[in-house]
Amino acid sequence: MPKAVLVLDVAGARVALSAGRVLLLSAEGAAGTIGPLAWRALVDQAAEGRPVLDALCCADEPGHALAALRAGCRRLVLDGAHPAFAQVRSAAAEMGAVLLPARPPALDLRGIDLRRDAGRAIVSRWLAMEPDDIHDGLR
Predict the structure, then answer these.
(1) What backbone phi and psi angles, to 5 degrees, belong to 48?
(2) Rounded to whole angstroms, how far apart are CA atoms 19 and 7?
(3) Which has the closest alpha carbon to 26: 69, 88, 44, 35?
(4) Strand (E) positions, 7-139?
(5) What is the pLDDT of residue 71?
(6) Domains of the chain: total
(7) Nearest 5 degrees, angle CA 87-CA 53-CA 109?
(8) Which stretches in the chain have pLDDT values below 50?
(9) Cα-flanking dihedrals φ and ψ of residue 32, to 5°?
(10) Maximum Cα–Cα distance for the chain, whole Å?
(11) Among positive and negative, which fits the CA dihedral 38, 41, 45, 47?
């Protein structure tokens, strides 16, 4: 899976997509706040017709994950420790979707001015980092 970038809006998603192959990751629990339809609209608008990878976070709410599957989301994050995780994973698999048990490490675009070259350079550096460097930076 490509490196993840936490996006909150279309502009941030477009910058992330322009920097390379990336997983667009929603904010934690976004399935219950903005909802799956708004997430799909954000991703679709940013993608401009290109295929992209995205993941909607459902936190520890399996009902939100099931609603997101019905809304067309095909990659979700649901707390793997939740008792219903296996059932939701089975439902996701039947629909050709992927259920992740935890949020992947992600660059959070909040606070980064993407209108500036320096902000866009942060995204490019994140995508160029090796996995070991990412984990070292998170410790």
Answers:
(1) 50, 45
(2) 14
(3) 35
(4) 23-25, 53-57, 75-77, 98-100, 106-108
(5) 96
(6) 1
(7) 105
(8) 134-139
(9) -95, -10
(10) 45
(11) positive
Taking a C-beta distance cutoff of 8 angstroms, is the pair 82, 107 a contact? no
State residue 136's pLDDT score. 46
d(CA 87, CA 78): 11
Q: For residue 99, how many C-alpha atoms fall within 13 Å in the half-sphere facing its CB?
A: 28
pLDDT at 66: 98
- DSSP state for residue 51 in the 8-state scheme: -
Closest by alpha carbon to 60, among 83, 90, 92?
83
* Residue-range definition of the domain harbouring residue 69: 4-138
Q: Output the CA angle 109-92-10, nearest 5 degrees.
A: 25
Round to whole Å and give the CA distance between 13 and 82. 29
- pTM listed for this prediction: 0.89
Place of tokens 């649901």: 78
**Which pLDDT score, from 0 to 100, does residue 138 have?**
45
pLDDT of residue 20: 84
Element (H, E) at 6: strand 4-6
